[in-house]
Amino acid sequence: MTEETDDTDDGRIVVVDGETRIEDALAVRRTVFIEEQAVPEDLELDAYDDAPDTTHLVAYDGDRPVGTARLRPYDGETHEERRDGDDGDGEHQTGTVGKVQRVAVVADRRGEGWGRRLVTCIEHVARERGFDRLTLDVQTHAREFYEGLDYEVVSEDEFLDAGIPHVEMEKRL
């Protein structure tokens, strides 16, 4: 089963549930992260790809996969929790947090709005799944893109992930 989340004359974005479309998501990631950015395959492809609570989205122009993103529940401590601490009862007030990862658009389709559509769709799916906040680790070159979508930088410093500079960003839904 696949669920259409965004379908226009300019292509469609679908929620993936099935082998063919998950392979399309992985193909985009191989092209962008492994081939273009030289991320080692063993770092790019991980156990979350097959986890039952992970949601993958794939953007299609016709039958061609041109972008992807994934969403999963996040049980790690977010910046907001580190900043706020607890409310006196010894427990963090966290809400339900989703982790957005592996957002990618193939090189020849960048600048056409696919990334914005993917993030908008993943936010819609996150709300449907009960998340009230999203966190993501963003490559620093994409920081302004996410700021334009109302994400805020919450990490104190840049950090390296697979040798690429990143910042942590969050958004309340």
Automatic annotation (TrEMBL):
Residues 72-85 have a biased composition (Basic and acidic residues). Transmembrane segments: none annotated. One of its GO terms (molecular function) is acyltransferase activity. PANTHER family: AMINOALKYLPHOSPHONATE N-ACETYLTRANSFERASE-RELATED, AMINOALKYLPHOSPHONATE N-ACETYLTRANSFERASE-RELATED-RELATED. Gene3D superfamilies: 3.40.630.30. This is GNAT family N-acetyltransferase. Residues 13-173 form the N-acetyltransferase domain. Pfam families: Acetyltransf_10. Keywords: Acyltransferase, Transferase. It comes from Halomarina rubra. CDD domains: NAT_SF (cd04301). It comes from the Archaea. Residues 57-99 are annotated as: Disordered.
